[in-house]
Amino acid sequence: MNLIKTSVLTGFSTFIKIISGFVINKMIAIYIGPSGLALIGQLQNFITITMTYANGAISNGIIKYVSEYKNEEEKKTKIISSGLRISLFCSISIGIILLLFCKKISFLVLKTDVYYQIILLFGFTIILFALNAFLLAVLNGLREIKKFVTINILSSIFGLLLTCLLIVLYQLKGALIALVINQSVVFFITLFYILKSKWFNAKYFFSAYDKQYVLKLMGFSLMAITTASTYPVSLIIIRKYIGQNLSWDQAGYWEGLWRISEVYLMLITTSLSVYYLPRLSELKQKIELRKEIFYVYKITIPIVLLMSTCIFIFRPLIIRILFTSDFLPMLPLFKYQLIGDMLKISGWILSYILVAKARIKIFILTEIIFSINFVFFSILFINIIGLKGVTIAYALNYFLYLLTMIVIFRKILFKKNG
User: Fold this and answer.
1) Phi, psi of 326, rounded to the nearest 5 degrees
2) Which site among 164, 199, 214, 302 is 20 to 30 Å from 243 CA-CA?
3) Structural domain containing residue 380
4) What digits encode the pLDDT tens for the residues 281-328?
5) Do residues 303 and 268 make contact, with C-beta atoms less than 8 angstroms apart?
């Protein structure tokens, strides 16, 4: 299945997810406001970090090796069973930590321990989060695209209904509750589709784990943990810096802008995660890898350019539709944010080769360096020109990231004996 076919299949799912995100953002804007949006962003980033640890950070490893070994039954069984044990061990361990330190975590993430019950709830349900992520990774690796898409559609619809209901009933607290329980309920939907799959066999999940395959997956854990410990943390640091040095309303404006970027880029990143990583994992020859990467560029970059141009032209209307007039101070922030989005996607297309070919050291190093750079540039430019500085820092950081990926790409795929 090529990128276009995969994009068509995932397009409707992504469209539903985008519409759901738009409606949820609107509800937050109406019922909670800019400062509440900033706080929700803090919890969202914390959940991203925690979830990566809770499933052992093996999702990309599961996708790669299940895809690579899909015709080798014994290896596939060992990968899946080993992955399940890693996810269970890690999610139970993280859940215990959340339960024991719920008040401290609430204070660190949400500026108050008033919301410690949210963290408690997260601790009790995190095992379901982790198992859902694991099963989705297996489906992705097996190229069960239709089931993968269906689950994501149902997840988006359920998340929309639950979040809107809880926001109306409990405002900010309701939005926070929805964040920590959505994927737990979706796990049962995913399990239902897994059990109905023709390939399903209990041996995949209950065979003895294999140390060799655990070590293979742990290499991907290092990459995912690095990403989870750098990128979301950098956002938390920057958002907190804006809130403390400018205002939490301004932190909310930036969070709103960031959500717009995330939502429209989802059209690209969803297709890349479903199609691109398994495809790169399958290819063995350098010439095939180069052709695939250039093929993805030819399709992806024009789409991103068109979308970002439309967003820039219609940005006042978009703000009023997605948020409220209280968010109009976001207007000057769009220019460099959209440039940064284009540079980010251009760099990410190349960076997938590091994941697909398990170039662990290079991946970890670049993630750490450019997350630190983003924080450094943001603080520097915020102090010089205010909130607009964070978007300039974003564009500059991903320009340097793209240049670095080009150099790495040439060394990996154009070096004769590499």
Assistant:
1) -65, -20
2) 164
3) 3-413
4) 667 777 888 888 888 888 889 989 999 999 999 999 999 888 888 889
5) yes
Closest CA to 109 of 250, 267, 251, 233: 233
- Please check whether residue 312 lies inside any domain of the structure: yes
Q: Is 198 exposed, middle or buried (0-12, 13-18, 19+ CB in 10 A)?
A: exposed
Task: Give me the count of residues in the chain.
Answer: 418
d(CA 140, CA 300): 20
> Which helix or strand (DSSP H or E) is residue 298 part of?
helix 286-313
Burial 268-306 (b: 16+ CB within 10 A, else e): bbbbbbbbbbbbbbebeeeeebbebbeebeeebeeebee
* Tens-digit pLDDT profile for residues 161-215: 999 999 999 988 898 999 888 878 889 888 888 887 777 777 777 776 677 777 7
Three-state SS annotation for 105-159: HHHHHHCCHHHHHHHHHHHHHHHHHHHHHHHHHHHHHCCCHHHHHHHHHHHHHHH
Separation in Å, CA 316 to CA 263, 334, 336? 17, 10, 16
Instruction: Assess if residue 418 is contained within a domain.
Output: no
Q: How many domains does the chain have?
A: 1
